[in-house]
Design a protein that fits this description.
With about 350 residues, this protein is of the alpha/beta class. The chain contains 11 helices and 14 strands. The protein folds into 2 domains: about 220 residues, Type I PLP-dependent aspartate aminotransferase-like (Major domain) (Aspartate Aminotransferase, domain 2, 3-Layer(aba) Sandwich), CATH 3.40.640; about 120 residues, Alpha-Beta Complex (Aspartate Aminotransferase, domain 1). The protein starts with 12 loop residues before the first helix and ends with a helix.
Length: about 350
């Protein structure tokens, strides 16, 4: 019996040819393909600027730094996310302040944000988890009221939208193109913004603080994207819509046929892009038993995330003892099933059959 992987890089001859063209050109570092990738990605997100970088973690860190976030500042975010979200805040010298999540979407709960604001708060960093955007109307209203920056962790949410606006277009967005993402370059990231000053800061921070070669205006890093990565991204962009259609079909099929667990919902006004299809095993059977059963049936699954960030050992000294009851409960229930575009209808039927045994 063939195993059904939880994710699989979607690589075709187009990506292979694009990489070979770059190899043969001799221009491997950041160059014309990176610039074209930035231009096309900005159009995709309907923003003025897109700045390509080496990975999503650096995209988050640069986005924060470019908005003036640093030591002594506080950034409100969610504890139910990948560790990179919080690491990026800490790398700037700022402090993460956690707000619990909505049990339905697993995204940050806007109703809890204002209570977490202090005189040190400088930004809200919502995470569009699994490809479903947060309630950005409420978050934008709070940010405007308190004069706070919005830094969107859109690492899982290329082309997701909320009420007609795309992820990465509300404030400063950060995207990841890791190998398993909906649009991938192996490793890679992108920052999006409509703010000219923020965009200029991002470009300098990613490249040793330079506007002009060998003239260093600020302290910067080497966080550039290579043309090899950009070439893969350009080939992926050409097929992104078709891959999104397939993910949407797969998710709808699972929603329609799975009966034994809580399936994911899509909030009104949102377009989910289904980076992950995450169920909740919240009755009867223990989640870890469900993982074992599905693995034994040849279905790979993922748990995103088994330990909320506020409970991670690496940040305890920064935040102390914090309780986030919804996040802690969801961490015991969530289970992600394969939803990627390379699934066959036979694969989908097998997934449904095995899940309905739980």
């Amino acid at each position: 019996m063939n195993r059904i992987p939880i994710s699989k890089p979607n690589i075709t001859d187009a990506e292979k040819a694009a990489v070979m063209e770059v190899m043969e050109s001799g221009f491997l570092a950041q160059g014309p393909r990176t610039a074209l990738f930035e231009e096309k990605f900005a159009r995709l997100c309907e923003v003025k600027h897109a700045i390509a970088v080496n990975n999503g973690t650096c995209a988050l860190m640069i986005a924060l730094l470019a908005n003036g976030i640093g030591p002594g500042d506080e950034v409100i975010t969610t504890p139910f996310t990948f560790m990179a979200t919080t690491n990026a805040i800490l790398f700037t010298g700022a402090k993460p302040v956690f707000v619990d999540i909505e049990p339905e979407t697993l995204n940050i709960d806007p109703e809890l944000i204002e209570a977490a604001i202090t005189p040190k708060t400088k930004a809200i960093l919502p995470v569009h988890l699994y490809g479903h955007m947060c309630n950005m109307d409420s978050i934008q209203t709070i940010a405007d009221k308190h004069n706070l920056k919005i830094i969107e962790d859109a690492c899982q949410s290329v082309k997701a939208y909320y009420k007609g606006k795309y992820a990465g277009s509300y404030g400063t967005g950060a995207f990841s193109f890791y190998a398993t993402k909906n649009l991938m370059t192996g490793e890679g990231g992108m920052i999006t913004t409509n703010n000219d000053e923020v965009a200029e800061n991002c470009r300098m921070i990613r490249s040793h603080g330079m506007k002009q070669r060998y003239y260093h205006d600020i302290l910067g890093y080497n966080f550039r994207m290579m043309d090899l990565q950009a070439a893969i991204g350009l080939a992926q962009l050409d097929r992104l819509e078709a891959m999104m259609v397939r993910r949407r079909f797969n998710a709808q099929y699972l929603n329609q046929h799975i009966e034994t667990v809580t399936t994911p919902s899509v909030q009104k006004g949102c377009e989910h892009v289904w980076h992950q299809y995450t169920i909740k095993v919240n009755g009867g059977r223990h989640r870890d038993d469900a993982v074992k059963s599905l693995n034994e049936a040849g279905i790979d699954v993922g748990i995103y995330y088994p330990v909320p960030v506020h409970k991670q050992k690496s940040i305890q000294s920064f935040i102390g003892d914090v309780t986030m009851p919804v996040s802690e409960k969801m961490a015991m229930q969530v289970l992600s099933l394969p939803v990627h575009p390379l699934l066959s209808e036979e694969d989908l039927d097998r997934i449904v059959t095995e899940v309905n045994k739980l």
